[in-house]
Every structure is written in C-alpha cells, then in structure tokens.
Specification:
With about 700 residues, the protein is α/β, with parallel strands linked by helices. It has 25 helices and 22 strands. Helix 1 (about 10-25) packs across helix 3 and helix 22 (about 575-585) crosses helix 23.
Length: about 700
Amino acid sequence: MMPKLKNPENVKDVATRYLCDAVGNEQAEFRDGQWESIEHAVKGERVLVVQRTGWGKTMVYTIATKIRRENGLGPSLMISPLLALMRNQEAAAFTLGLNAPRMTGDNYDDSREIQKELREDEVDILMVTPERLASGHFTRSTLPLITRGLGMLIIDEAHCISDWGHDFRPDYRRIRRVQQVIPKGAAIVATTATANDRVVKDVQHQLGGDIQVSRGSLVRRSLQLHNLTLPDPKVRLAWIAQVVPHLAGSGIIYVLTRKDADLVSSWLRYNMIEAASYYGNAGQREELEQKLLNNEIKALVATIALGMGFDKPDLKFIIHYQRPGSVVHYYQQVGRAGRGIDDAYGFLLWGEEDERIVDYFMDNAFPPQNEINQVLSVLEDADGGLEIEELMAAVNLKKSKIEKVLKLASLESPAPVIQQGREWYATGEASGFKVNPEYIARLREVRSSEQAQMREYMRHDGCLMAFLQRALDDDSAKDCGRCRNCTNRANKSHQPKPKLVIEAEQFIKKRRYPIRSRSEWPIADISDHPIHGSGITIDKSHRMLPGLALCRAFDMGLGDQILRERNGGRQYSNMVVDAFIYRLEEWAEYKGIGCVTYVPPRNNRQHVPLLAAAVAERLGRPLVHAVARTGMGARQSDQQNEVQRALNVANAFSIERSCKQSTLLIDDISVSGWTMVTASALLRHDGCPSVRPVALVKHSLSG
C-alpha cells in the first residue's frame, strides 16, 4: 500500500522536490521511467530498473527511501558490490538528508555505533557488500536489527545475481536468504545498466515473477567510441603517452592486471603525466577517488576495482589498455565517461596478451570436481576446523582456488562446509558432494561466447555504439554518427611517434622488479632446522635483504625470451647475460657485495651456474659454490601455493662452503620467493653477514 501522506495525490510533487534538491536544479524533471520506478517502490512493490549509466538509478531508491521514511516506514538495506560505488551512494543519500552508513571491511570499528543507530531507528539506508552477508557476526548481531522492520531491499548492480551475467558474484546468492526474512510490504528495488534479455529473465525469476521492469534505451550520446589494434605493449604505452596530454579533463585507463596498472601509471608519470594505480589492495583508494573527482590527477590506471557505479559526471575519457572479457563488461566501464558532459571518449586498445589473460581468468573461475573433492576430504579428516593456511599446507592448490571452493560450497543449501571465525568445518553434506557438471559447462559456454562477441566487436566495421546496444538486447539501436566507424576514421593511422615507441621499450627494459624480503614464514614449524625455530617469525639474523629481478614473465619481450631459453639450450644467451649484468651495475646496492653464489639446480641444467659465473667474472667478485642440494624436495614448479613451496624447500638445501662476505644470491626465476628466502636463511645461519637475492625473471604465483 502507498504510505499515508497528508496529500496523497502530491506524492510525485514531493518526489520532484527531492529531485531538485538532490541535483541542485530547481527546474529538474524526472527522466522517462524514473518517477514510475519510484512510485512502484513507494507502494512497496518490486521493481527492476535496467537503464543506461548516468540515467539516475540512484535517485530511484534514495527518493523512494526518503518518502517511505518520512511516512514512518523502516530503513532500507542496500547490497552494493564495491567500496567506490558505496562512497558515491553515501554522498547521494547525504544530499537528501539521509543517514546511509556502510558496514564494510574498511570501517569495521564503526560497527557498534551503526548497531546503536539501528536500534534507535536513526539509520535510513544501511549499505553492505554481498560478502558481508557471509559474516556470521553480521547475520547474528546486525541483520536482525534491520530486517524486522525493513522498509526496502535495494540490490545495486543486480546483474551480479544472475550466473548468466558477465559479472556473476557468488555472494549475491545470499540475497535470497535475506528475501526470506524481510517483512511483508517491504519494497525491492534492483538496478543495473548491463543486463540482456536472458539476465533480466533470470533476475526476475530470482526476485519474484511479479517484479515490474523499467527498461530504457542504453545509447550514450556523449560518447565517441574508438577501437584500435595495437598488439605490442610498447606501442600501446607510446600511444597513451602521446594522446592523453591532448585530451581535456581527466579519465580512467583500465587494465586487466595489477602489474599492468603499475606499469602504465609509472610510464605516465615518467612522461610528466599525473597518474596513479588503483586496484584491490593499492591503498589510499578513497583518496585517489577524491583526487580524480577533483581533477587533481589526469588519470587513474585501474583494474575492475574502479568500475561499477563510480560517478564523476565530467569524466572525459576511458581508455582500455587491454580488452575486457565481454562486451557488456566493456559497456559498464566505458559508461563511466560523459555522464554530465556533451563530449567524451572511449578508446579500446587490443593487445597480444589479452587472450591469455582472459583465458586465465575463465579457467580459474569455476573449480572442477577433483579440486572440490580434495578440499572437502581434508576438512572431513580434520579433528577440528582448519584455517586457510592449514588447508594450503594440506592441499596442493592455489590459495585462490581453495578460497573459491570454500565460497561456492558454503553457498549451497544445505552447505557441505561452514565457517566459524577464521576456521572452516565440513558438515554432514560434505561426503559425496557434487557440483552439477552441466551447470559449470553452461557457464563456461557463456563466458566463451562473451569472448567471441568481444572479438567480433573489435573487428566490427559498423556503428560501435549500436553494436553495444544490440549486445544488451536494446531494440532501439541505431547508428550514433559519432564513433570511429560512423565518422569514417577507421582507416586513419593511429600509430604513435617512433621515437616515443623506442622510449617506451627502454622504459620497460629499465623497470625494476623488486624481490621483497620476508619477516615471516607462511606457517609455523616448517622444519626442525634452527632457521625455522622461531615459530612463524624469521629471525632477523636469518633474513635476506630486498633484491630485484631483471624483468617479469609474459611481458611480451625479454621475459618471454628468457623463459624460452630456459626451456631449451645449455645456457642463457649473451644478450640476456649482458642485460642482467647491466642492470646489476646500475643497482647501487650491488657495490657492497663481496662474493657471488647461486641456487643450485635440481637436475644437470647449467643455466644458473653459468649465469652466476659470468656475473662474478664481470663484476670482479669471487664465485662461491656455497649452496648444495640435499636431494629432498620435489620440483618447485609443481607446488601451487606459497605454503607448499615453503614446505617443499624447507630441507632441500645445505651449506657446502661458507660465505663470510656480503653475498649476491642468483637464481633465474623467482616465483613465491621461498627458495631464495630459505637459501638466504641457511647462508646467514652459517655466518654470512648479508644476502641480496637477484633473478632474471619475476613470475607471479597467482594465488
């Protein structure tokens, strides 16, 4: 029922007044579908809003909440996926005088105060991430405070509910449990900008068949879209450095990995362009968002951590350094630009590494049955609960895969695993638990078709905006008249200046890739050796100093060449050796080195001993064959997580000859770093005053 107002016929007038206040414009009017969506919510109905970015979906649930709260109804609970998105939503609610606190990992200390405000009915919108719904403490102590009198359930980025969607997040399944406890008459508002017909039907089914759908055109008239094929990373870097200074305003450069975020941002700063990296654990994320909002920085180089819902109306450009995994993902990200201005740009660059990166993400998205069996079997055999690190010691799987198994299993009903604090336990459902192989195959098929559609988009010679609209089942699609193809610029050269390409190549070659020192072992009591005798702490007298690697794996350059040479031939080429020595000679820390040693190979490969000999000769330092193999330990490359890697080399080495001077420890590949940490600790225990680790290639363990 519509809440009782003094003048019920004037509800739209009240809502319009709030709209004007929120946008600071006395002449503001609702866009097509906005008022109708608000009306559904005010009446306590269910509505799914599928509208383009910048349409004003936030206004629907903030204004509806304002009206319902002023008429004595309960607070709203918002499920929102990203902190950047929440901070914008918090600001939008504030303009209407709504108290909209968030309970997230970065403000845990505020939880008690928020609970107090909930008890006193002072909260208008409580914002949480879907992952928060997995917290036992939250579901026991906070959720009951709001669900008893809940006025509205808000599900932002609702496409995440659907496993057909491009951005399916398993924790969104927990929303169904919230639905089961909300009181009768509570409204549900779900919003998204990226849902095709299949996803809309799935969300409708999961939220209730009686849900109303507000769906409008997804065209973004302010955007000028461009697709550019620049396979080589150095050419893409040169293009970005050449183009960005000539673009007005500020923007976002999207990358697929954190490593590339650091590469691109450091390259831009090298070219005197204000830029910073932004990703999941980059630190100072809120400060970086504010700098971009205030145009104090030219560009943030970001992963998808800065994606859904980030609201800067005058954002001038979006550049994709690499191709996203799906067309709808691309629409979601490029839609950050041009929300409140007439002209904005979207540049999509294609690189050689795109397929490999996207394939990696897809291959690791769904754990196969054998990995599920391994994790559940260990939990069933355990005397009590196990923490993640204990599972990593017992199961040779990447940490990310173990976490994915636990998350997906915990969402089943009944669940084969439960979490209590930091520990995981098997339930009676664990024995014989199976995932539906047809379900996994269906999801993989969807992801593969999304990649194929993205490749088709890159090759498309028609209107780029219309292609995006059709991909999202928008039947109003027509040529935009603004994109690269519509304006007949597809054949115009977009190659950067050769001089800048050379500079980019040199920049990549000269980048330093640090090998960090370690102060703790991944778990306690790794072995009986004295270097492992201080529990989890590595004794200060056994620690290595920070070191460096020449390059990184899969960098489309020297790193790839080194990996090829490692797998063939007897030794590294003179070019690789020269590049390594040149880097060391540039490194100020090497000047204090008294001798050189190396990590001995497991087999008869002579790549590393010969490399160490060449380095020692060129640097004028004695080569000491200090470290020997004990014959224990399997191939390190077969160990899938850092606990397994630390355990594998715990007893793999002994000290054959002492190094009584500061020592340079050489290996060719550094992945988790535990081989060097262990060898360094043994050298230090034997009396070596300090150890600097260096390697040709730094490789990521990726979980």
